[in-house]
Structures are given as structure tokens and as C-alpha cells.
Design a protein that fits this description.
By secondary structure, the chain is an alpha+beta fold. Helix content is 39%, strand content 10%. It has a 5-stranded antiparallel sheet, with no helix packed on it. A two-stranded antiparallel sheet has the order 1-4. About 2% of the residues have low confidence.
Length: 363
């Protein structure tokens, strides 16, 4: 299978993985032949990437750190929680039953992170845009817990960070939907409304007796930056809580690698470049490095060009060093197509990935 952009795929290709919606239902089954109508519909629903079949890559299997079922279960929990908040008229707070369900979901996700150091591979736009806030909350929790896990923080801390990440955007329930989903440039007044979600989330959560106050500070501080350039208070350095620093990194990465109404999703290596551009200035360098060691920088199925001119598909991840995957070569440097063979970049340190592509017409 190959990872390709919905903007480049042509009719006649077959899906290698089913496409799901936010309720866990399959929109398009595996092996369905893509028609022009189906491709148009995928683009309308703002899917950026899909997996298509390739006879040379039939043995590739995807290994996600969490199953679709687990992610969807967590999404449904956060969806119900946020709906409970939205219908509360600001006077009712999350029930103990609902916070217990959030805790249970977090513990399930942590159990999959803890047994071994496993690189995260999450393509968040498997889910449709309409419920971005809910899928974003789950993804940020996964990424934040991966950072905390890599930093060898106690499991109780990892779980608390996950809980804070799940609720970090709760304040957006109090921001007008027409502002949140605006496709054009925000006015200064609209951007101020967006920024208020941090304060509104903090004020909501800090009044809840069944949630630790530090969770409220995750909502309050996740847009603060260590150089003082963030909001809402412009605090810096050690004044920002450890949890909020971690969640802030996870939040930015998922935001840029997810599909939005105003732009397409970036690939993981592009998202990491943004984090490293701000490392030491906006983001804690140690935390960014920990995240780099935790995420699949070159997702399985991605087309890559190597420094020696060869082109191939990422077929597996190296747990020892996730910047150097195993690549199946489909094209030599001179343009000829050999019998496909594998190159483990961990064993060939003189060869690097120099370019990536999601074009369905490569090779």
C-alpha cells in the first residue's frame, strides 16, 4: 500500500485501507475502486491522504500505537463530555461518571505506550473535519503522553498530562462556531475571541471539584511560550507549568498535521521542522527532542527519495531510531525499475531521506 494525496489520486486506483467517519462507521470499504465521484467526495470532506493498493507493496501492514477502535472510543467520550458542557448553560459541570470515563480512556492509551518505546503513527485526517476539536483532543493527548513517556516521567504524571490534554481545548465550547470554522482570514476581534478559549477553559475547569486544578492550568497555559510570546498572559520560562509546555508542543504538531478548513495537512517531518524552528525559543528543546524520538517521522507507505537518487516506499519503522526507516526501493537513481528490494537506513548511515512525496503518480 502507498500513502497518497487525494488531490493527486486518479480514478481506477483501489483503496488499501478503509476510510472511516467520526462515528467509527466505514465510509468507503477496503478494495473499493476509486471513481471521480468518490475522489471528489473525499476532497469535499477534506481528507488529505488515503492508502491505495500497489502490487509491489502488498505485504505492508500498518501498526498504529492505538487502534482505530480505541481512538474512536476516546473521541466518543470527549464528544459526550463536551456536549454535556455545551448544554449546561454554564451552570452544570462534568459529572463524576464522565470524568471516570475520560480517566479510563487515558489509562487504556497509556497502557499501549508503556510496554515498549513505540513510535506513534497517527494520520488524524482519517476522520472528517466536522469533529476536528474532538479528534484533535485525542491526538494531542496521545502525543503529549508520548513526550512524557519518553522523558521517563512517572505513570501517574503521564496520565495526568493526558487528562489535561483531553480537556485543553474545552474553552472552545464557548467560542462561536462561525469563528472557529471560518475559512478566511480572522479579523483582530475574531482572533481575540479565539484566544479567549484559554481563559474560558480555565475558568470552567477550576470550579470543578472532581478535577485537579493543574488540569485547568493545562487549558489556561497551552498557548504560552517559553520566550513570553504566547497568550493569554505572556508568561515565560519556569512560570509555565511543565504539563502545559508538553501539551503546547503536542497541540502545535497536531494542528499543523491535521486537515483544517483553511489549509491542507502537513506531513509529520514538516510538522517537526516547525517545532524545531521554535525549539529553545518558543518550545523546550528537551521536550521537542523527546517528541522527535516518539513519532513516526516518515509514515509507513510514504514515498521518499534518498540522497543517492533512489526512490522507494517506507515499509517499516525502526524502533531504535525513527528517523531512519526501512525503505523498499522501486526506482534506481538512473530511473530504471529494479525487482523491488529493501534498504534499512539504520544500517546505511551515509544515506538519508532528502525528499518526500504523496503523489499517486510517482513510480
Amino acid at each position: 500500500m502507498r500513502l497518497v494525496s487525494t488531490k493527486s489520486v486518479k480514478p481506477g486506483k483501489r483503496l488499501a485501507q478503509p476510510v472511516y467517519n467520526d462515528k467509527g462507521s466505514i465510509l468507503i470499504q477496503r478494495d473499493v475502486e476509486l471513481t471521480a465521484g468518490i475522489i471528489d467526495r473525499l476532497q469535499e470532506l477534506r481528507y488529505t491522504y488515503i492508502y491505495i493498493r500497489d502490487d509491489r507493496l502488498q505485504d505492508i501492514e500498518l501498526e498504529f500505537s492505538t487502534s482505530n477502535e480505541e481512538r474512536l472510543k476516546a473521541m466518543q467520550v470527549i464528544h459526550k463530555s463536551f456536549q454535556e458542557i455545551k448544554q449546561s448553560d454554564n451552570g452544570r459541570y462534568l459529572t463524576e461518571k464522565m470524568t471516570d470515563k475520560i480517566t479510563s480512556s487515558i489509562q487504556e492509551m497509556v497502557s499501549n505506550l508503556r510496554p515498549k518505546r513505540q513510535t506513534l503513527m497517527i494520520l488524524s485526517d482519517m476522520l472528517i473535519y466536522d469533529d476536528y476539536i474532538f479528534s484533535h483532543s485525542v491526538n494531542v493527548a496521545l502525543y503529549a503522553m508520548a513526550i512524557a513517556n519518553e522523558m521517563r516521567l512517572p505513570i501517574s504524571v503521564v496520565e495526568e498530562i493526558g487528562f489535561g490534554a483531553i480537556l485543553h481545548d474545552v474553552g472552545k465550547m464557548f467560542v462561536p462556531q462561525e469563528v472557529l470554522q471560518k475559512t478566511g482570514k480572522l479579523t483582530d476581534a475574531e482572533f481575540e475571541q479565539i484566544k479567549e478559549h484559554t481563559t474560558k477553559g480555565f475558568n470552567y475547569l477550576r470550579k470543578m471539584n472532581n478535577i485537579p486544578l493543574v488540569i485547568a492550568h493545562c487549558a489556561y497555559q497551552h498557548h504560552e511560550r517559553i520566550n513570553g510570546s504566547g497568550y493569554p498572559r505572556g508568561i515565560s520560562g519556569s512560570d509555565i507549568h511543565l504539563y502545559a509546555k508538553i501539551i503546547g508542543i503536542a497541540d502545535v504538531f497536531d494542528a499543523v498535521t491535521s486537515n483544517r478548513v483553511y489549509r491542507d495537512a502537513m506531513l509529520p517531518h514538516e510538522g517537526l521542522e516547525i517545532l524545531f524552528a521554535g525549539a529553545g525559543d518558543q518550545f523546550d528543546m528537551e521536550m521537542v527532542e523527546a517528541f522527535k524520538r516518539s513519532v513516526a517521522i516518515y509514515p509507513t507507505g510514504l514515498t521518499v527519495r534518498l540522497s543517492d537518487g533512489r526512490m522507494g516506499i517506507v515499509i517499516r519503522q525502526n524502533e531504535d531510531i525513527n528517523t531512519r526507516p526501512i525503505v523498499r526501493i522501486l526506482q534506481e537513481a538512473d530511473g530504471t525499475e529494479p525487482e523491488p528490494y529493501e534498504v534499512n537506513l539504520y544500517e546505511h548511515l551515509n544515506i538519508t531521506v532528502v525528499a518526500c512525496s504523496t503523489s499517486a503518480e510517482e513510480n
